[in-house]
Amino acid sequence: MPKRHVDRLTDLPEEEHAAFLRALAQVCRRVERLSRHYNVALNQGTKAGQIVFHLHFHIIPRYGEENPFAVHPRARLDEADARSLVSTLSAA
Known about the structure:
alpha+beta; HIT family, subunit A; two-stranded antiparallel ribbon; 29% helix; extended
């Protein structure tokens, strides 16, 4: 969690990204003492489950239970949808 208050990752100044990622990696190394299997999650916005409006990651160790993020098989985009998505994401 950064010392500077920001709601979202995109609000964190770029010059602070490296320090934030180093801190996240340090916490992940500690979590690996509990389990080498864990999820790192970031909820951005209420529809994504964000209830604390301060940038932070959730690091959730896993101990053999099923992966909660893999409940459905991944769907494959058709070519037209893929092109549309790339176009939207590439727009300046």
